[in-house]
Amino acid sequence: MNTVHKFALTPARLAIAGALAIAAPAALLAPAAPVAAAEGDLDRAVAALRGISTMKADFTQTDRKGQTVSGEMTLKRPGKIRFQYEDGVPLLLVSNGKSFTMIDYEVNQVERWPISDSPLGALLDPSRDVKRYGKLVSTDHPDVVSVEVRDTSKPQFGVITLIFSRNASAPGGLQLTNWVALDAQNNRTTVRLRNHKYGVQVADSAFTYQDPRRSTRRPR
């Protein structure tokens, strides 16, 4: 197994099941003291998420040991997302709007679970009430908005913290820059986004995959 894959296998599962981490914008812009959230920012964050019809962005994913892989994320609401990893990482994470699937092409393994069982459901599940389960948390800069989402009745699903920066050109005036997920085992992974492109054409076929368990390798 190559070095990249040894690293990538664990964070990939965490990114789906519940581990994603720290805000780069806050670190870059940090003044001395935390800044309290502004009134109405939770509504703005919800509007920003709902305002995304399609989006593409480059991502980097870092585990708690500081090892990083990168790739491209494609999002289409409601509920569809694809994490296409860099060359050398034989993994694919994809959601068809109902469930997440992780495909490991090195060992021909496919795992699947409902969107609602992952903290990323806060980003993707149209039935998830972000405002009901979310709360604003203080940040290190007035232009950074942080929303922590957790379902206290289902602690096994972990917690995700969505980090936004104020950006007039983004839907709702807030741009999702990264998120933080922490699973029930306290595992954490950071996913940071850059080069956002909104309203791009994205076919539903982007959220299919080649099933390595089938000799025909037809898209699912």
Total number of distinct structural domains: 1
Structural class: alpha+beta
CATH superfamily: Lipoprotein localisation LolA/LolB/LppX
Query: Which descriptor suits the 3D outline?
Result: globular
**Spans where pLDDT lies below 50 across 5 or more residues:** 1-32
User: Roughly how many Å is the radius of gyration?
Assistant: 17 Å
Task: Briefly note the CATH topology name.
Answer: outer membrane lipoprotein receptor (LolB), chain A
Strand content: 35-45%
Per CATH, the architecture is Clam
Mean pLDDT: 78
In the CATH scheme, the class would be Mainly Beta
Strand order of the largest sheet: 6-5-4-3-2-1-11-10-9-8-7
Task: Figure out the total of helices.
Answer: 5
SSE run: HHHEEEEEEHHEEEEE
- The count of β-strands is 11
Span of the ends, CA to CA: 26 Å
Helix content: 10-25%
Largest sheet: 11 strands, antiparallel
